[in-house]
């Protein structure tokens, strides 16, 4: 982990991925993050299972929870809430994604916690924001950030169902942007001593990600068209299938890259073809050019094209599988993929949170906590005795 948040204590009362991911990013940056889970059952993501996984590592839980300490409190009991309040008194940041009715019931609204710690940064993630008919509705990544915000619509081809996401794009984007907002609030507090309430919402994350399309629509300009590969209106920004059934993508947005691309694919006749003489002509005849390129890319295997394009002036990319990403030298040498220690003998690999400091990789990372793993440790830090811990555990206020 990095050291830029050393000395910052974060208390999280959140589940699933979105807000826990924000706390995880703060842990990556060096904060001491204490995850507070329900004494009965814990974070719901602990009970989600990926088909085929052996159960030793849960990707749904780990994606938002590595690097934290974990305690289990029953916040419906006064004794459990009192332990949370004591933690808040010494904390810098509090995060939650519970709905408004649950926050009020548990006494963890901003006014409840800022009263105990006026310097606190109170961060809240919701599905649809604080106002309007859906203010207390639950939200998840795909329906809230992806479908309602227009991304699924813009990717739906005629007579086909809307595509699914490849992963928790809204959750993870929302998490890292919420972490950045918290960092900004902490910076202001360093200057002024003033706490803050920071809000983010999955729907807001989705509308931000769709900014280009929303802007274009607002001024009456067509957005990026929904097209099949063979019907692309921009053949030089398209995907192409290789002889062995793999795919590459090219993104040749600069006019000056055209001659070099033609040389790399060994089709010099394209330079003299009047249909493709300049950018305007290539755009007007995009389907024809796409047809030519489909034939070209089908003449070599994926590995051959990857090797040939290493010297291409323009931008291109192999369409890699997750397994290939985990062994990609470009990702590994830059520290974009890192090992996370489960214990002294076992690890898993993961993409790190997207920031680096002092030109250094992130360093050692630890897996997420076991359920209630650090309850006694953390509560001892705020002064509880062994006898008090036993009494709280006997009453069910802690686990």
From TrEMBL:
Family matches, as InterPro entries: CoA-transferase_III, CoA-Trfase_fam_III, CoA-Trfase_III_dom3_sf, CoA-Trfase_III_dom_1_sf
Alphabetized Gene3D superfamilies for the sequence: Crotonobetainyl-coa:carnitine coa-transferase, domain 1 (3.40.50.10540), formyl-coa transferase, domain 3 (3.30.1540.10)
MF term (GO), any: transferase activity
Residues annotated as transmembrane: none
Pfam families assigned to the protein according to its UniProt record, in alphabetical order: CoA_transf_3
Keywords: Transferase
Domain of life per record: Bacteria
Record's protein name: Formyl-CoA transferase
Organism annotation: Pseudomonas mohnii
